[in-house]
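A further point concerns the way the authors explain their paired sequence and structure data. The central task, working out the structure tokens from the amino acid sequence alone, is never made concrete. I therefore recommend that a typical entry be quoted early in the introduction. An entry of this sort, consisting of the sequence and the corresponding backbone structure tokens, reads as follows:
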Amino acid sequence: MSDGEYFELTDTVAAFSVSCLEELSCDILYELTSRLDGRNRHALSSCSKLLQSLMNDTFSEVALSIPLQKSCSKIQGRNSLAYIRKLSIQLPDEKSRQGTDNSSIKPVAALSSFLDVYFNKDKPLPRLESLSLHQDDCMTSIVTYDALSHIASVAKSLHSISLPMLSPEAACALPLLSTSLTSLNLVVSDSPSLDFTVQLPCLQHLSISTREGLYYLLLSLGQLSDLSKLTALKSLKLNQVFISDCRQTFNPLSALTSLTELCVSSPVSMERLNQLPSSLQILQLPSFAGGLEAAAGLGHAFNLTELRCRQALTETDLNYLSHLRNLSRLSCDNIILSDSKVQAVQAVLMSQPAEHGIESDGDSSLNPSLNPVPLPVLAQIKSLCFTGYHKHNGLLGLMFPGLEMWKVSSVEVPHPCPPHVAPLPCLKHLVLPSCKVLPSLLAACPALTILSVPGINCLQRLEELLHLAPPPITTASAQGSHAQLATRSSWWPPHLKTLSLGFSSSLRFRPKQIAASLSSMPVAIRCCVRHLELQDRGRDAGTGMEPAGRVVDDSVLASAVAALQGIEALRLVDCGAVSGVGLCQVMQQLAGPKLANVEVIGCPQISRAELEGMPCMLGRPFMVSKWCPNSVCHTHTIPSYCNRGCKL
């Protein structure tokens, strides 16, 4: 088979014999299995225990957890890591050994034992390209100099590595890493540890952050000058890392002509912006010193496409940002508009319902000649993210007419609700916490295809979303408008394909009521939704004592799947009350024939073996099943195929 060709399986799967497979070398078998997609893997592995074991070893992306024991034996079902390309390892910590039989075993010894078994110096890992080490307790350093040098001597083809907190002694082993290393994610506790990063000349992506409990790290101007010697650097992220000399802050960075992404932790003034290379495309900073007038001074030489800041933007700030013609993605705390201007624009919207309301088929933007109070317009913005409280006023469609993706962390809904929502004709992806303005906002998004609603904290909000009950209205004219909308079948976005529902802990005693609401979905939802995601955030995020939420159980899952017979993909995140038996029964009895993809993330009652065995057990060998032990691993390490890993 030539490169780019993939092995296609038909009914000849049964023709494979174990004796023939035993005659092939591991390298040939690896090339064979690496060309199979998830569906063919399940079909082939079911015909031979040898192939099943082989495929478990040749999965290219694996997530492991190191056990807290003196001697690390072979992981059941995993004989080698020789064919792994991406490896994520969860390190043990001091907290995990308290109150257990292994309380006398230190995490450093457990890591050393693991490396002796799977990072054997006599058997290098030639295919390992990405390695991520994760540590929950960031107050103590587990990765020692010996451990890091051990990894460097075995994994000589590493291109990317992510390390937890390193002690100054362990940081001395950084120059021993592969010279082909292009990406380094580093957590340090002191400034001198940064001096060793400049000895990796091929670095293209460098991320430096401080350990837990350390408010900031001071970077000298000399160290910044040394970083500028990494001429291949494309991405530089300094999290909680400040630069000592504020007068010449970014001068050395002007030598990084390939730099496209910069994340800093200190405010930026106009003088500092002018010192940045013109190749910069992504800029993240806490705030602009002296306001956003600095952005207006960048000039046309800058090709800034994404700006992320943690400050609230006013109308004046938005006017300055309009000078950045290439800016398409914006992230800020929120947008502040004066109450008088909001009321004036709402009055204009109410006077033009036929031309610019929900039913408009033409240009949905407000007519400037009819608008006595103009708003700043950034037509180039395609993606908008609010990281703080946003006081919803329904006017974003006027300021961002080309908006395609909008994400909000939390919403502070004014009382009463806005009587009119300006249309968002281009919006395709919306992430908005559950609130009482969501139904009227959905009516203004005719092109919406992806909807994510986290933080559903009461049954009333769930009913408003699923049955799209009109929100409270205060004016007589608005009452008539919403009365017409409530009777129209197009109230639910007609093109919506993906629906994600996230439940908070306040509903942990209401699974029966949630199941009843999901089972009575209207026909408009049943016909259009193809991808369903259920997120259970009903856990104590502050203490982390509970591994997953208890809101979404087997009955909630069964009601959702039974109501959506046309779903093609199902995704469960942190659903601690969903069992493997319950999921199997739902897939066997309620799921329609189109269900072809099931993904389970952070659901402790569903094992990896149960999930991956379901396709063949149900007679659907081509169904793709993906599994990941926790949502943190899924988010930060292997976003696509975490099912290929196993947990010790």
